[in-house]
Model the fold of this input.
Amino acid sequence: MEPPREPGPPWLPETRPAHPPSVPAPPGPGRDPREPGPRFDWRRFSRSPRSAVGLAALGAALLLWPFAGFSWIPWLIGLAVLVVLRLLRLDGPLRGWDLPLACLAVPIGLMVSTGPWAWALAASIGVLLAGLVRLPRWRVAVVGAALCAVSGIGFGLSLHQDRVALEQIQARAGDLSRAGIAEESGDIVPSLVLAITQSRPDPDLLCAVLTPPAEEQLARGVGAPDCPAAAALLHERRPAVTAADEEAMPRGADPKAPPPPSLVLDACATPWAEAAGAALGRIQVELVDPNQRTYLVTGFAPCA
Done:
């Protein structure tokens, strides 16, 4: 123990011993700052129900997106749902389900512009993805794979049916495209008569209002290889058109009534039957444009 120091002269300032430098306390048992922070655990994230639902919804949306024509509207709907839920402060009561619900809104919006089999395939892919991210719980993945197989077969069959229907529509459109100068039902026979009785043969006027089966039937009926040759042959047989012939032209459908889908025009008393023969005297026509009330010739029938 040190002896007490004697006070110095009163004119000198009092000196005090310097404090020893502070020594930092040793680090506690906490985390070493040099160590990296906690890493994102993908397995733990993907196995939570909310994450599995969100990932499955996004997978289904990505699958449906090409079938919806890559429309951005459903994605904007999902973003709007998320914003509304956050603005209404419903993320707390929903306990984190706001983001999965927004993800679900995207495939629901995409379903509006797709078909049922696309929905089934997208749902099956979603179940499969949900099962894969939750492995080793393989039962959900197996169910999803089975659903994918069934819905994939159904989707393929629906695509085939749509392709067949599209081919039929295109074939029908090809027939209708030939009706560029199609007339109303009352003008069909006068057009055919004009095509064979004018000064020069006009195969375009004659054949433009005939469907391919009607062209073949006309060519066989007059002994010609095709419709243009039949038009030339009928032009050689053309009779003179009189006022009585013009009066005998069929009037067609009633213009005040809805146009019937099909008609049989009796041209047996006209120059058409005189040149083409009684076997082609009755003309079968079919409605192709209800708004314009125009018809195509689909075949011929013999006079009664």
